[in-house]
Design a protein that fits this description.
Distance between the termini: 30 Å
Radius of gyration: 17 Å
CATH topology: Glutamine Phosphoribosylpyrophosphate, subunit 1, domain 1
Number of strands: 19
CATH architecture: 4-Layer Sandwich
Structural class: alpha+beta
Largest sheet: 7 strands, antiparallel
Number of helices: 4
Length: 279
């Protein structure tokens, strides 16, 4: 299965791929050799770099590591293809514009049933590639469009979260549905199930979370396996499919949705066994 990585930070930070195990999983220490990508937010816009080649052998990865690509919000993905050819169009993270904001999405799982569901036939947003992940994203964007374009003001977090939660609740009935989504203001993460290499079974946790605080120094450079974080004073949260260091990563519960902004957790609802949302 694919792997996900995201960072929400109070101040801009760097994520240097050649230094981290995340990139090594993309064809070196892991089997995810079918593409990789990262999206850096800069205000309402993004800088997105993708490649349908293995991250472990990528010159682009080494280029990123040698330059200071900084952002307070990043979403990254390394791919092991289960649906769709090894092409750039099928390489995540995916991005679309809505109401003057760039929306970014990355998914880890397998949702082939979506292609045959009437409720997952997109209208305003159409896939460029052939993956179930992009189809799911286009359908999510169709649903979000209603609140983003039918309001005089930016929709509230309550409105946005209700749509994301209903979407997560629906797709996880059809297969593994770990995903990261951002509208540029908030980062939403849904944890579900992923294949456990030890048992080869689908099981929770599908995502892990790590809180980091960088001490106040004149030159702070905190390195963990998979990230190089530089800031004078900062608080940030990392999300990853598997822990990237020996630090105390928190395994998210199955069905848990985490909402982050500026390195802080805003709300963490869960989809309960009876499909109710816990706030």
């Amino acid at each position: 299965m694919c792997e996900l990585l995201a960072i929400s930070s109070r101040f801009p930070v760097t994520a240097n791929f050649s230094l981290m195990k995340f990139a090594e999983h993309g064809g070196n220490t892991g089997p995810h050799r079918d593409g990789w990508g990262i999206a850096y937010y800069h205000g309402n816009d993004i800088q997105r770099i993708r490649e349908h080649q293995a991250a472990a052998n990528s010159d682009w990865v080494r280029f990123i590591a040698s330059h200071l690509f900084t952002s307070p919000l990043m979403i990254a993905h390394i791919r092991r293809a289960t649906r769709g050819e090894r092409t750039l169009a099928n390489t995540q993270p995916f991005a679309r514009e809505l109401a003057g904001h760039m929306h970014v999405f990355a998914h880890n799982g397998d949702l082939p049933a979506l292609f045959d569901l009437p409720s997952f036939q997109p209208h305003h947003y159409r896939p460029l590639g052939t993956t179930d992940s992009e189809l799911a994203f286009c359908c999510l964007m169709d649903r979000l469009r209603a609140v983003w374009l039918n309001n005089n003001d930016t929709p509230s977090l309550t409105q946005r979260l209700a749509i994301v939660t209903d979407f997560a609740k629906e797709i996880c009935r059809h297969g593994p549905a770990n995903f990261l989504y951002s509208d540029g203001e908030y980062l939403y993460a849904h944890a579900h199930r992923r294949t456990n290499p030890a048992t080869n079974q689908l099981e929770a946790p599908g995502l892990h979370l790590l809180n980091r605080r960088c001490p106040t120094t004149t030159s702070s450079d905190t390195k963990i396996h998979g990230l190089s974080i530089s800031s004078e004073e900062n608080s940030l949260i990392l999300l990853a499919s598997v822990p990237l260091s020996e630090e105390p990563w928190q395994a998210l519960e199955e069905g848990e949705i985490v909402v982050l902004k500026n390195g802080k957790r805003i709300v963490s609802p869960s989809i309960n066994k009876d499909d109710t949302m816990l706030l």
